C-alpha cells in the first residue's frame, strides 16, 4: 500500500518529558519546523520538562525558553502539567509568558482533535 501522509494542516501534539537539553531542543525544533509549515502545534511540558517552563531556570534553559516564546508568539499552544509542577516545585507565577497550566479539557482538546499526530521526547 501507499505510505500514510499527513494532511497539510494536521495538528501536531508534542509530549515533552525531559529537562535534558538536547532532548528538549529536538522536541522544540521539530515543533517549530511543523509550525512553520502551518501545522497547529501543541507542546505539553510534563514530568521533568516542567522545569524548562519556569523563569527560575532561565539561565539553564535560555535557548529553550526563547524557542518556546517564539513558538507561542507564532501561534503554538504550550501547556504544562499542574501535577508535575507541584511535584518539582514550579510555581504558576514563575511560568514564562504564554504557557497555560493544563487540565483534562485542554490536554484532551489537543490530543483528540481529528487528524492529530503525536510525538514524544
Note down, in words, how this protein is organized.
The chain is an alpha/beta fold and 121 residues long. It contains four helices and five strands, in the order βαβαβαβαβ. A five-stranded parallel sheet has the order 4-3-2-1-5, with helices on both faces.
How is this structure best summarized?
The protein has 121 residues and is of the alpha/beta class. The chain has helices at residues 21-36, 62-73, 82-88, 104-111, and strands at residues 12-16, 41-45, 77-80, 100-101, 117-120. Helix 1 links the parallel strand 1 and strand 2 (41-45).
Secondary structure layout:
Layout: E1 12-16, H1 21-36, E2 41-45, H2 62-73, E3 77-80, H3 82-88, E4 100-101, H4 104-111, E5 117-120
Parallel strand pairs: 1-2, 1-5, 2-3, 3-4
Biggest beta sheet attributes: 5 strands, parallel
- Total count of helical runs of at least 4 residues: 4
Coarse structural class? alpha/beta
The separation of the N and C termini measures 29 Å
Globally, the shape reads globular
Q: Would you report the number of β strands?
A: 5
Order of SSEs, N→C?
Answer: EHEHEHEHE
Q: What portion of residues belong to β-strands?
A: 15-25%
Q: Going across the biggest sheet, name each strand in turn.
A: 4-3-2-1-5
**Low-confidence spans: pLDDT under 50, at least 5 residues?**
none
CA radius of gyration is 14 Å
Q: How much helix is in the residues? A: 25-40%
Give the rounded overall mean pLDDT.
94
What characteristics describe this protein?
121 residues; alpha/beta; 5-stranded parallel beta sheet
